[in-house]
Amino acid sequence: NADPTRTKPLASPPDGPVRSRGGTLTASQVSAWFGASKVLEGVDLEMGAGRVTALIGPSGCGKSTFLRILNRMHELVPSASLAGSVLLDGQDIYGTSLRVTQVRRRIGMVFQKPNPFPAMSIADNVAAGLKLTGTRAANRTELIEESLSRAGLWNEVKGRLRDPAGGLSGGQQQRLCIARSLTVRPDVLLMDEPCSALDPTSTRRIEETIGELREQVTIVIVTHNMQQAQRVSQRCAFFLAAENEPGRVVESGPTSTIFDSPRDARTSDYVHGRF
Ligand code: ADP
Ligand code: MG
Question: Of 106, 122, 126, 230, whose CB neighbour count within 10 A is largest?
Fold first, then answer.
């Protein structure tokens, strides 16, 4: 890979210590409701530092809900409730020792549809990651370059940082959104079907970026693309909801096990496209 910016050391942090590796997220007996409707039941899952964990399973089985529980976005829905616990390096993200803004700063989210501010410049879009989480940074310019480099976009945009973000391609916009979430140096990056609105070439670029980020940031990705799950993840969790039942994790483990020798016949059927 010829991009020299990739090997640059990290700029000094916005504040607080640099974390060179991602944190470990541990979900225990997580259940979730919207009103009286239970949509997740008893999810146990460890999402470890230095690994990509892929959440797979049919639509409606609670993958996005689970992801939103992992950075406290679930509670933004007025009817939503949950049970169980989520620990980040042993600290309860729903406990009193962490504020919700700290949680969302340490655990970032990238959505299915790239959502930059289209009229805002590329540089300001990246810097918006700091603003959104109330993070002060003396070295804004350095952080913008670092974040764009880590998202694999620096070489493509370095000559036009003042241009509006709306002029970028869909894949570039998604990498811009990744860069925006990286400005605060999160420990964890949650990605909800980040490539499903993108063409195959853009998808592969994002997959490369995920591979490069993995050593520094814990990544949890929801994907419907089984080849993608195999390409990018080291761990996989298969979610399934039986009719009129909440979603559950049928099984989780090393990606190779989930694809080549799963314990449960339903996992095998799903990963081989039989439902
Ligand atoms: P997935 O991401 O696996 O497709 P979701 O987490 O989006 O599944 O949805 C799980 C279940 O929760 C579905 O039955 C869905 O209709 C329901 N659901 C999701 N979001 C809401 C919401 N804001 N209000 C009510 N029900 C919701
Ligand atoms: Mg979803």
Answer: 126
